[in-house]
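Feature request disguised as a bug report, sorry. It would help if multi-protein outputs had a clear separator. Right now it looks like this:
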Amino acid sequence: MTYYKIISLNLTLAGLVIFAMLNSGCSSPEETHKAAVEKWHEERVERLKEDRGWLKLAGLYWLDEGEQSFGDASHHPVNFPEGSILQDAGKITLDGENGLITLAPAEDGLFTIGDEKLIGSLTFPVANSPEFEHGRIAFTFIERGDWVGLRLYDQQSPIYTGFKGIERFPVDFNAQVIATLVPHDEETTVPIVNILGQVSNDLSPGVLHFEYKGEEFTLTALDASEGARLFLIIGDLTNRTNTFGGGRFMYVDNPGPNGQVKLDFNMLYNPPCAFTDHTTCPLPPPENRLNTAIEAGEKRYQR
């Protein structure tokens, strides 16, 4: 799950709390916690705005087997944003049987790969796609099950230029709970459905047990790609009203020796598909759709 790693923040909550204590001069646990959450949110927004952040994702074009043309002219199957490239920029050929793509630009030097200009055509494995850059745009190729797509980033994406911030619930000190991870007896995978209806079987280290608002709940945890954290896809009753309908994400540290870990629901955040239609977000598994309203974290993004 590539996007897990992209979205996961480098600083742990503990590190953020220490930062806040050293820099904010807070005098109470509530104020210190609020400063840490605000710091976390600022860093999250900056990540969204990065050159390869979700706000600059401007296209996801699923490829057909064989040859297809691309450019900014409307007749191309792969139609780039207007003014971002030549009207007729070249051809893309998908050889799905052998897992290969051939990119044939209309002009030598139209694209760069790193610091090198691309001269002629290039054939490469879908699973090891380079990134191609031209002016304000960049693109690469991704796999989702049997589907192969071109993922395009644009520094002038309307989603980025029109971004006005993310509305959140007020930071709630009581939206923190201590959970206990009960490991699975054997290696376990969980079927995760994405918004395209595709199913992946993702490793789960165990189930988190916790109490919230006087009730007992569980959440199935998934392995984060970098291994040091757990990834949670959570649905709750607010998804029907003022949070994203497809649930929200959260990362937490791996539990300590006693199996316990803090869940801070103030750090529930919108998946990429809340901002753009050009993503393939996973949805909460049925067991992670909680029959309670978690009024903490990010609210539904208003496009």
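(second protein starts here, but nothing in the output says so)
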Amino acid sequence: MPYSISRARPWRWLALYAGLQMAAWLIAYESGFHAWRVWVGPPRHDIAYGLQLHYAVLLLMPGLALFNAAACVWRPGRTAWLATACCALVWFGYWFNLWPGMPLRWALTQTSGLLALCLPPLLKRMTAGNAPIPWRKTLLSAAALLTAMALAGYWAATHLNLNPSRAVGQIIDKQHDVAVYYNGGVQHVDGRNLTADGYNLGLRYQCVEFVKRYYYQRFGHKMPNDKGHARDFFQPRLASGELNRERGLLQFRNDGGSLPQADDLVVFAPWLFNRYGHVAIVSETGPDFVEIVQQNPGPFGASRERMPLKRVSGALLVGHPRLLGWLRRPPPLADAPTEPAPVAPAKQEAPPRD
């Protein structure tokens, strides 16, 4: 017979609800912090924030989780929601000092903590009143709720503009007079960009739209295949230096045979949070770096990024784990001669002899 809150062993439910809150908070916080490092870059180190987080992990959240779980186990109903509201107010006040100096970190800690504290009353609400609540159903409900929260957070982070200081369509950079536009969430789309003659530049303002517009405006280059995601720009079967016929460009691998040059189109492989890949333009090269200019790096990403060069087994490579290679315009054909070739003088015949 399944255990229930109203029957024996309520301490099991207390441990379950408290553990779910701690696990949900840590998972949400670490996931958000990892996404921050990827999309924004390394966060600023702050000793005071580190100590505050340390005390929150060891003392504050465990205490709030136990109090919230106890209210849900022994005082269900409105009392449980009142206890959750009190815990949320304490959590909000504890992190309030972050708002003036670190608003993004404030939003991350507040959101992850408040969502975790709401789990016990929500799980209690999802189950059937005072009827016995089986362990399996509770765990499945918690897993479904966490999954829904994660999916909703991922959709919001990738589709909405979370940077209030910028507007979608705003010019944030230029390379050789070709504009780089701000796109907000990495999966946001603002219609398709077509040239006057119908050539497809891509979806505004994705990374593919920028690199195709760059080659079109700077070189007048039209790709034979004007469709495809960023990952489709690199063809793995081609060797370095071979012609990528779909793009009309030479393809090179990041294998040490050569290095990117200015105006090359670099291609990055897909990964867990971006299944489409990424493309950018090489804006500058140096003795120990390659700089790229890019569109759609995320709400807080930079339009320019420098990748270091590293030596592996004697070969010099671009030090980026997801860089597949780069595309380059074929060398121009030799120009036709502008002056007519000299004509050899006519051979004069010797005068006839008598």
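Even a blank line would do. Unrelated, but nice: DSSP finds eight helices and twelve strands in the chain.
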